[in-house]
Design brief:
Blueprint: H1 12-20, E1 24-29, H2 38-48, E2 53-56, H3 61-64, H4 74-85, E3 89-93, H5 101-106, H6 133-150, E4 156-160, H7 175-189, H8 192-198, H9 226-254, E5 260-261, E6 263-265, H10 273-276, E7 284-286, H11 298-310, E8 316-320, H12 339-349, E9 352-357, H13 383-396, E10 410-413, H14 416-422, H15 434-447, E11 452-455, E12 466-469, H16 477-488, E13 492-496, H17 518-521, E14 523-530, E15 536-541, E16 549-553, E17 555-561, E18 565-570, E19 579-586, E20 589-594, E21 597-598, H18 600-613, E22 627-634, E23 637-644, E24 650-660, E25 668-674, E26 679-684
Parallel strand pairs: 1-2, 1-9, 2-3, 3-4, 4-5, 6-7, 7-8, 8-9, 10-11, 10-12, 12-13, 13-20
Antiparallel strand pairs: 14-17, 15-16, 15-18, 16-21, 18-19, 19-20, 22-23, 23-26, 24-25, 24-26
The structure holds alpha-D-galactopyranose (GLA).
């Protein structure tokens, strides 16, 4: 592989967007599951629904290479011909997400092995070991043949490599992986004593005399070495990325102008999106809101803000969402009328230039036949299809949105290495889970009407008025210094408990927690005091937050103040008056510390004050609770998108001159009446 082939092609993504001419709309298209006659109806309905981009062939390896080397792309050539004839662009998959039966038959060693030592068989999908040279080679060969065959096809607009890497197989523990891990460690540490030092192997007699003696952290009698586990997560992520790169480099060589992407699974722990994203031409994510959630839009919003943050605010692709229900939760809720539209516009409000679904036509057989489709089992005469067609038509009516950007003043920091380390076993509390703790911060900011970029600690923080670091357990000294200088230079920082605790090898920063942030936060902690499962603690605001109330749980710390002032104190009998949340003026900026988990009321008070002090302005003042507003602006104009996440009607008064972008008459609007789950798209001027 030539390393130059790993770099995204400049301008490739713009060619895709220019070709589409407006927001993309479509989904996974799997015509191979259907008789040939169905395609005519598909194409007619796609035209009606204004579908302009479909993902083709994700699980088609066994069809295009039914036995070794017997490549036959004629079926998909016809599909792409038909799509092109209907003006639809293909996001053509490299078809490598599910190895075909012949490959497993000839090379059973490609099958993944669990930490418990079980071999995972074929019959599902993603049944390959990420380190398998055989899998990588056969996948790259298929990508090469495919790219060569379709390089000049006019429907080809985007390459879709693999599918949701790491979704089913985050890591493999077979002997091939073990050998690859040892090679990876040799490269990383060079000297086995450097590894011994990094892994603290004098603990429990784990000192290695040679790299040859190292094994993956498979099932062990008790907690396997945490630093070894952490390195195994890094290694496994990089092995998955190497699978992607093996294919992407072929595509870039054969079809240099065609953009390359892969669809991340939103909220997935095993794949470090921030490390992968620079190697794509455009970021794409799959996100499956759970309509049974109390606030089903929050977790997806966080996913969208992460994917946008992964490529510096560029437009991104919502590659998959469900038209209605999924089939893989224990209880699968449908999207009630209007919710699919609302949540699709939510993605656009968060910067998506493509709204796509899994999948076009609901399967008749196979493991996902009860997963909704854009064309359901009931056919086009159905609520789901009607809502889909209406959405497609609506999105097509606002081409000016294409390429406009969301700009936010607040960043939430997320670091995959810290996530991996935070959730290792043998910790003070098993309750500190990254995804939930992120939402503890994200939800109240959302309620305050403040848009957020989710970025890594290495991002350019100077671009933000407020930076929030939820439970950033692993923090390098350099990143801690960057946070410190950010505050010294006038920035506002909010840090939550169990942050800045360990270095990149999961070794504790000494001298009182959170050692590398003590100076900027003006606090010192000697011991963590995790709460029992249902234990809660009353807290109350003080100083500028006098009168504010809240309830805390999960975690407490006996904070020593070394410069900071309390903003919230505990109000429970045992800890009355001890600081819970602090504020520290440092240099030209302010740093807050939350030593406990506050409920939403408490969080809104603390973050509300941090937001106000930092001069952060919501997109629109005075919005009713549960109504979200976002602004996108760029060459196509300035757009205000209003989303009513509630089940009630609301009225929103606007300042300035706005026209209704969804109204063909371009009506001027000064007040917007939003029905339950309603959406409004307004253009400035
Ligand atoms: C994932 C996959 C799809 C499909 C959907 C179902 O996103 O990429 O192939 O399985 O889930 O929700």
């Amino acid at each position: 592989m030539d390393v130059n082939d790993l770099n995204p092609a400049p301008g490739a993504a713009s060619r895709l967007w220019r070709g589409l001419g407006g927001l993309a709309f479509g989904g996974d298209y799997n015509p191979e599951q259907w008789p040939a006659e169905t395609r005519a109806e598909d194409l007619r309905l796609m035209a009606e629904a204004k579908v302009n981009l479909v993902t083709v062939g994700v699980f088609a390896w066994a069809r295009v290479e039914p036995v070794r080397d017997a490549y036959d792309f004629s079926y998909f050539e016809k599909v792409l011909d038909d799509l092109h004839a209907h003006g639809i662009t293909a996001d053509l998959a490299t078809m490598t997400a599910s190895p075909p039966p012949w490959l497993v038959h000839e090379h059973p060693e490609i099958l993944p092995v669990t930490a418990e030592g079980a071999v995972l068989g074929p019959g599902g999908r993603q049944h390959f070991c990420p380190s398998s040279p055989v899998y990588r080679e056969r996948a790259a060969m298929l990508a090469e043949r495919l790219a060569t065959h379709f390089r000049d096809h006019p429907a080809l607009g985007l390459w879709h490599v693999g599918n949701e890497y790491g979704c089913h197989i985050a890591a493999c523990y077979c002997e091939v992986s073990a050998a690859a891990f040892r090679r990876w460690l040799r490269e990383r540490y060079d000297d086995v004593d450097a590894l011994n030092d990094a892994w603290s192997t004098d603990f429990w007699s784990q000192r290695y005399a040679s790299f040859d003696h190292v094994r993956p952290p498979a099932l062990a009698p008790t907690f396997p070495n945490p630093a070894q586990q952490l390195d195994y997560m890094r290694f496994s992520d990089q092995e998955l990325r190497a699978c992607f790169e093996a294919e992407a480099s072929v595509l870039r060589r054969v079809t240099p102008g065609v953009p390359v992407t892969t669809n991340f699974l939103g909220g997935l722990k095993s794949v470090d999106v921030f490390e992968w994203a620079p190697g794509l031409d455009v970021a794409a994510v799959d996100c499956y809101a759970d309509p049974h959630d109390e606030r089903p839009h929050l977790a997806p919003g966080l996913v969208y803000d992460t994917i946008r943050g992964s490529r510096g605010g560029e437009p991104w692709i919502l590659m998959e969402q469900a038209p209605s229900a999924v089939n893989w939760r224990a209880r699968n809720a449908v999207k009630q009328p209007g919710r699919m539209r609302l949540w699709s516009w939510q993605a656009v409000a968060h910067g998506a230039d493509a709204v796509m679904f899994f999948q076009w036509r609901q399967s008749r057989g196979g493991a996902e036949k009860f997963h909704s489709g854009m064309v359901p089992h009931a056919g086009a005469d159905s609520r789901v299809y009607r809502e889909i067609a209406a959405l497609g038509q609506e999105l097509a009516s606002v081409p000016g949105l294409l390429g406009t950007r969301v700009r936010n003043q607040v960043a939430i920091l997320l670091d995959w290495n810290s996530w991996w380390a935070l959730e290792l076993d043998s910790h003070p509390s098993a309750g500190v889970r990254q995804a939930e703790r992120l939402l503890d911060h994200y939800g109240p900011l959302h309620d305050l009407g403040v848009g957020v970029d989710v970025v890594p600690p290495s991002a350019d923080l100077g671009a933000y008025a407020l930076v929030v670091a939820p439970n950033l357990y692993l923090l390098s000294t350099e990143d801690a210094e960057r946070l410190t200088s950010y505050v010294a230079g006038g920035g506002a920082l909010v840090v939550s408990f169990f942050s800045g605790i360990v270095d990149q090898h999961d070794r504790v920063h000494l001298g009182g927690y959170p050692a590398p942030l003590r100076e900027v936060l003006g606090v010192r902690v000697e011991e963590f005091c995790p709460a029992a499962e249902h234990e809660t603690f009353a807290v109350r605001g003080c100083g500028a937050l006098e009168g504010a109330e809240g309830v805390a749980d999960l975690w407490r710390e006996d904070l020593q103040l070394t410069g900071a002032e309390p903003e919230f104190v505990f109000d429970s009998a045992d800890w009355a008056g001890r600081p819970a949340v602090t504020r520290h003026e440092f240099g030209a900026g302010v740093a807050r510390y939350l030593s406990t988990r506050l409920d939403e009321t408490g969080m809104r008070a603390v973050l509300g004050r941090a937001v106000a002090e930092a001069g952060v302005r919501p997109a629109l003042q005075g919005l009713p609770a549960g109504v979200e507003a976002a602004v996108r602006s760029g060459d196509g104009g300035t757009f205000l998108i209003l989303l009513n996440h509630t089940g009630d009607k609301h009225e929103v008064r606007l300042d300035g001159e706005w026209t209704d972008a969804l109204d063909p008459a371009d009506a001027r609007v000064s007040t917007v009446a939003l029905p339950p789950a309603g959406v409004a798209v307004l253009r400035a001027g």
